[in-house]
Amino acid sequence: MKPIIFCDFDGTITNSDNIIAIMKKFAPLGWEELKDGVLQQKISISTGVGKMFSLLDSSLKDDIIQFVKDTAGIRPGFNEFVDFTKQANIPLYIVSGGMDFFIEPLLNDILPSDCVYCNRAYFNQEKILIEWPHTCDNQCNNDCGCCKPSIMREISEADEYKIVIGDSVTDFEAAKQADFVIARDILLERCRTEEIPHQGFETFYDVMHILKQQMEVKA
């Protein structure tokens, strides 16, 4: 078994979805319709999230970063989980539809930046502008923004056992590409409905236990 792990950030590593929390705190009316459109898959992730951030003034950057630092909360066991993957020599990549300006401060000193795939935010105009450096490859036409299946295809090798850890509808396409999914919340329900091999989790202590079981089974 040659495992490789692709882990979501918002609502997975953190206790809450930071984009939703930011919008509740700072955005004017109109953002919820965009959010609902994304979650119901009526509009693409990049369109919905890009329009949500375009509602926010660039001058809010420092306030948003401090807000996320104060409220996000890292899910219990994450630091130990990272240490476990290093000791077991399991490649770990963070693949997130979130933004660099609030992900990097929260992961600082935990993981090197070249293990993190996310979107970029720019604050040189009146409103926040989002750039999508990891767009869909020719096998995906979902306009994902940060396309998790495309990243998986780029990084992983054919003989690797792909494990996805996530929580939301934005992780579902990646889950369909995985050999095994460790899920919570909406993604857990989707895995059950679609009969994707999976197990549920609440903390990263649970994740470590599941991984050890998987490694024993596949050994």
Automatic annotation (TrEMBL):
<comment type="similarity">
    <text>Belongs to the HAD-like hydrolase superfamily. SerB family.</text>
</comment>
<dbReference type="GO" id="GO:0006564">
    <property type="term" value="P:L-serine biosynthetic process"/>
</dbReference>
<dbReference type="InterPro" id="IPR006384">
    <property type="entry name" value="HAD_hydro_PyrdxlP_Pase-like"/>
</dbReference>
<comment type="function">
    <text>Dephosphorylates 2-hydroxy-3-keto-5-methylthiopentenyl-1-phosphate (HK-MTPenyl-1-P) yielding 1,2-dihydroxy-3-keto-5-methylthiopentene (DHK-MTPene).</text>
</comment>
<dbReference type="GO" id="GO:0000287">
    <property type="term" value="F:magnesium ion binding"/>
</dbReference>
<dbReference type="Pfam" id="PF12710">
    <property type="entry name" value="HAD"/>
</dbReference>
<keyword id="KW-0486">Methionine biosynthesis</keyword>
<protein>
    <recommendedName>
        <fullName>2-hydroxy-3-keto-5-methylthiopentenyl-1-phosphate phosphatase</fullName>
        <ecNumber>3.1.3.87</ecNumber>
    </recommendedName>
</protein>
<dbReference type="GO" id="GO:0005737">
    <property type="term" value="C:cytoplasm"/>
</dbReference>
<dbReference type="GO" id="GO:0019509">
    <property type="term" value="P:L-methionine salvage from methylthioadenosine"/>
</dbReference>
<dbReference type="GO" id="GO:0043716">
    <property type="term" value="F:2-hydroxy-3-keto-5-methylthiopentenyl-1-phosphate phosphatase activity"/>
</dbReference>
<comment type="pathway">
    <text>Amino-acid biosynthesis; L-methionine biosynthesis via salvage pathway; L-methionine from S-methyl-5-thio-alpha-D-ribose 1-phosphate: step 4/6.</text>
</comment>
<dbReference type="InterPro" id="IPR023214">
    <property type="entry name" value="HAD_sf"/>
</dbReference>
<dbReference type="InterPro" id="IPR017718">
    <property type="entry name" value="HAD-SF_hydro_IB_MtnX"/>
</dbReference>
<keyword id="KW-0378">Hydrolase</keyword>
<keyword id="KW-0028">Amino-acid biosynthesis</keyword>
<dbReference type="GO" id="GO:0036424">
    <property type="term" value="F:L-phosphoserine phosphatase activity"/>
</dbReference>
<dbReference type="InterPro" id="IPR036412">
    <property type="entry name" value="HAD-like_sf"/>
</dbReference>
<dbReference type="InterPro" id="IPR050582">
    <property type="entry name" value="HAD-like_SerB"/>
</dbReference>
<comment type="similarity">
    <text>Belongs to the HAD-like hydrolase superfamily. MtnX family.</text>
</comment>
